[in-house]
Write the structure tokens for this entry.
Amino acid sequence: MTTQTTEKTPNTPATGAATGLIGIPPHLGRALATGGGLLTIVSTFLAWTWTAAFPGDLTVYGYPGGLQVLVLIGGALTTLFGLSSYGVKGLRWLTPAGADAALRFAALATFATTWYTVLAISLQLGGLVNLEPGAYIAAIVTLTALLGALALPFERPAPDPIDPDETGWSLAKHRAGHGWQTVKAAFAAGEPGPVRALPSYAEILIIVAVLAVCLTVFTYGIGTEYDELFVGFLITAGFGFAAAHKAGLIRQATQITARHQTITIWGAFVAAALFPFTQTDDQYATIGVYILIFATVALGLNIVVGLAGLLDLGYVAFLGVGAYAAALVSGSPSSPFGVHFPFWAAVLVGAAASLIFGVLIGAPTLRLRGDYLAIVTLGFGEIFRIAVLNMDGTSGPDITNGSNGISAVPDLKILGFDLGARHDILGVTIGRFANYFFLMLIITAVVVLVFRRSSDSRIGRAWVAIREDETAALAMGINGFRVKLIAFAVGAALAGLAGTVQAHVTYTVTPEQYLFAGTTPPNSAFLLAAVVLGGMGTIGGPLLGAALLFLIPNKLQFLGDYQLLAFGLALVLLMRFRPEGLIPNRRRQLEFHDKAEAPAVLGKTGA
């Protein structure tokens, strides 16, 4: 009989002992972390290099620039969380779930951004000789702050028993696994308590502040002018969000927004509408309108995948049907029909065409389940692309102009308002893409309303029942085929609605825009990734997932051939550590984290 014993190492801390990852006294580690954060703020007001050849001009004393601003933000977070850990009056509200884990992430964000900047300066300018004393000071104090934060005590997990007959490789795997569990425990945080009820006006002001922060972060990220700054922004934003989450601020903000869901949703659209007014030209409004098109289609797919549980791999075809239908009736000289419908009629034509195709494709195929349905929808997506490619008058009827597509689609005019012209609003010049941004914002609001109402309705509950267990749903009297067909038709109509605007934004509609997979969205693979990444079955999840999946590849173009490699690696890591998505609903969060406590507040937009 084999006896299982626990390996004992003289230098290993006792099981459950509250010690840090680094052997520094906790009181000294806390002082180093807090002081390091404060000195980091000071270091950002010093020059980090002697030449302006590095982007951002880090040569100025007394005025942070470029990446120094991100380091300044990280240092401020580290200092605030450090002071909150001391129980400083007026700062305790910053860490309702505990300060130590948040302090570690904040120190890590500051360290990573600072050392990335120092290495970028050295590599781009040709050596450490190009660094000024401010850069050395920043590197040292951020390293000091990180070491101090890692010395803060935490409860170590108990190791699993070890079989003394195991080989050296098995023992190494066991030690590595226990080491990883220890690191996870070091960065874990407690559960914040429920937020006490505040006056309605106070909670609404908090919601406004949260939305203002979100708008500021998005505007800064989309407006980063050079590659180094965007990479630094990703580092700071990622670890900074993790710090706020571990501090309990995200969950408490979620509890407050859950009490005022309607106000939060409308406030989010108002904040989004303010985005074009923060820009000096139409450059980033272009990205904004494409993000909204992508997000709207992803939200439509969320009905099919997130609510009804139908894996659709050819969903981008419905976007193409709507775009082609609208382009053919919008007065394009490439259209064989020679008609020019007004906007409202073109929208109805695009949405109706996609809905009809959704019913025609869904009727014979929705009796299939799982992988078989996915294969059929994938085939439909390819059939659509090949069909419009062959409708060139040679291989088929002359309708879509083949590979040349429908070109010269005119700009929209709504009630005499030309969306293709510049307009002055409140002293701000609004360009063409900003006009379409406002139009897509209205359409996105309509899609959100449809999603929210349908998910709360009787048919929405039937979709969820079909998704969870179709056999049990059928036994309870739900007409599974009819319910799935409605989901397919509604999702297709919403995609066609977005396609009508896409045709006018891009001027040209071609078959190559509607692939299963490609380097740029929207395509079926990216749409499905946006839904899964953001959080299936929620409103905010696909919107956030679509924004990230469009913005990050657009900003990572400097990687060239390695762009998709880096992007795919990031998705793999995210799915490994947060498989339920960025904004999960309750059911999926409990499925992936069955040992975790249920979220304190649950809403339609997530947990």
Summary: Residues 245 and 251 are 7 Å apart (CA to CA). The two ends are 48 Å apart (CA to CA). The first helix runs from residue 26 to 43. The mean pLDDT is 82.
